[in-house]
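Contributing new records

If you add data, match the layout below exactly. Sequence lines come first and carry their own label; structure lines follow with theirs. Keep one chain per record. Anything else will be rejected by the validation script.
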Amino acid sequence: MKALLQAWLLAQWQSRGLWARLLWPLSRVYAWAQTRNARARSAGREQLPAVVVVVGNVIAGGAGKTPLTVAVVQHLRQRGLQVGVISRGHGRREDDAQAVGPGSTASEVGDEPLLIWQRTQVPVWVARQRVQAGRQLLQAHPSVQVLVCDDGLQHLALARDIEICVMDERGIGNGWLLPAGPLREPWPRPTDLLVHAPACPFAGGHPVVRQLGEEAVDGLGHRRTLHSLQGQPVHALAGIARPAVFFDMLRQRGLQLQRTQAFADHAPLDGWQPPADDLPVLCTEKDAVKLWPRWPQVLAVPLQVSLSPGFFAALDDRVDAALARQASRPAHSRPDPQGL
């Protein structure tokens, strides 16, 4: 039911139809509350002793932040920089600060932070307050030069050096604030780098192409090409913001989906049971981190992103400038990451 409601809302937010208009007065209340809270959070904004890169979006319903975060981290590591990741960890049971590691579960640290750690192997910390996660990470890993915050454009308590805003093909939807539209904050708003799907043309932005990988992998490391799965029925499940997009991408690769199961974003999937017919089951990587501890035979299909060299060149310029500012700051003026 929650997944159906989520899908219905996403559809309503693409136009200024009846339901959106009925909800519009509530969006004015939301705007007032956002402005008030933003002023309070900005007043106490904290600067951490590392370059902070925030990857986020301005709409609800997911827009591809996590794959972009992984791509940014991998690029910065290839440059030889020491990188860490902080996140709230949506879907986790507790709000305290925790490190993500080999023994972590999605219920403890969140599905996306666990996926990021598995894909990048850099230090990852989660906390309800990203500032707290950043402090703890820098205390445990003082050599980290760049902190990448997975989601956090609206978390104004954390000072940032670089903001990356990502949009999918929906753009800003109907252009209205929640709950009448998908916007978490008014658009346009200043941002250092804008990344968007090719079908969402924004002046000055960098296009990103998302596509499924050529292979699916199970929890034991066994791989199967998507080509080898063509011509036979398979099952598919997804607990993401827009499950239908994943299912459509599988169909576009020639797979025959006998059954699809859509779950709400960050759903724990604790009660899921594999079908009795023993057909292959395909899911997203975010779902796999929750399913593999119990059902390692499930096949995860990775989502790959391709970004232009221009995006990485622009990112490098901003990171280098921020590193230079960090180096020139007097040591006594730099916040102490151990000052908890």
